[in-house]
Each structure stands twice: as structure tokens, then as C-alpha cells.
Amino acid sequence: MSAGVAGALLAAGASRRLGHPKQLALHRGQPLVRLAAECLYRSRASSAAVIVGAHASSVRAAVARWPLEILASPDWEQGMAASIRVALAWAERRGSDALLLALCDQPGLSAAHLDRLIAEFERTGLPVASYYAHKNAVPALFPRSLFGALAELRGDRGAGRLLNDGRPVIALPWADGEFDVDTVEAERRLEP
Hints:
The chain is an alpha/beta fold. The protein has a single domain (5-187), classed as Spore Coat Polysaccharide Biosynthesis Protein SpsA, Chain A, CATH 3.90.550. Helix content is 31%, strand content 23%. It contains seven helices and nine strands, in the order E-E-E-H-E-H-E-H-E-H-E-E-H-H-E-H. The chain has helices spanning 32-42, 56-62, 80-93, 111-124, 147-151, 160-163, 184-187, and strands at 5-11, 26-27, 30-31, 47-52, 69-72, 98-103, 128-132, 135-143, 170-173. The protein has a seven-stranded mixed β-sheet, sandwiched between helices. Strands 2-3 form a two-stranded antiparallel ribbon. The longest helix is centred in the middle third of the chain and has 14 residues, at 80-93. The protein is globular and about 40 Å long. The mean pLDDT is 95.
């Protein structure tokens, strides 16, 4: 376990583009959010939480098998940044050295990939991003030095701009990140 990395799974969205909760879409017989929560739990993060909002009770039930903290994002309708602020406040309360953010709609997520992000942070002390679709993206790890910038995020754009604004960032290639479940067409690609 890494002593100072708090890992948060963002699972509060309403899945408006998909039309039903993507958190609960089945992949290999399991809800996506459960699979992602398992990856986070099995990673080297020192603590793990799931941020809930829309569909909170169903998401809570889906991840109940893992001893993760469940954090409500009361302003989830304002976009992903609201959930990031909830995760950030939790990481700050824990005195964490870094915050690892992951999404629940990337079926290719693995504990091994999250561990690679943590290991690069431990080695360099820099922000570490997954690199796919020609940009730095999540899952990503943000050191304490970026907590202030994370707190200023607003809307539904997430933390991507902090990873692509020219500051030093370690980019770990992760082609699996390109497949996320935001549309019915993408959902059809999931394995039953």
C-alpha cells in the first residue's frame, strides 16, 4: 500500500447520453462500477472511496461487497468537477499526499494500471496521467501541489485541462482508456 495516495472512483453522473445508469451497465456479468471499485480496492492506494450522486442507492448496492468509503456528491448535477471536489475534500481530510481519480465507465481498468500510476508518482512526485486518444487523461494521479487547482474546477470537464496545460506530467500509455461507455453503441461492445 502507498502511504499517501487516496483513490477515488467517480460514479455520480446521471448518464444522460446513455439514457440509463452506465455505472450499472453489465460487463462480464458485473456492473461496471463494481468492476472499477474492485480495481481501486485491489490497487496500492492507501484508501479508496466511491463518489455517488445520481442513482446513489443502486451504485451503493453494486459496490457493497468492497469495504470502500461511499461519499455523496450533493452537487453532482453541476458536473464532474463537483464530484472531484468531494473526493479532494476527503483526500485532504485524510492528509493524503496525492489523489488518484478513476472513472467507472472504462471497462479496461485494472488494479495493475492504477498501481503503475502510483509507482510513477512515488518515483517522481509529479502528476501522472493515462495517455490515450492523443492526450493525458484519467485515471490520473494528482499530487498535493495540485489540490488547489482541483478545487477550482467547475462544470463537467473534469481534470483533463490540468493534465494537458504544459506543466510536467508523467504520461503512461494506456490504449484501453479509449473505450468508455457513454453511448448505446459503446455499451453494445461490452462483454456479456
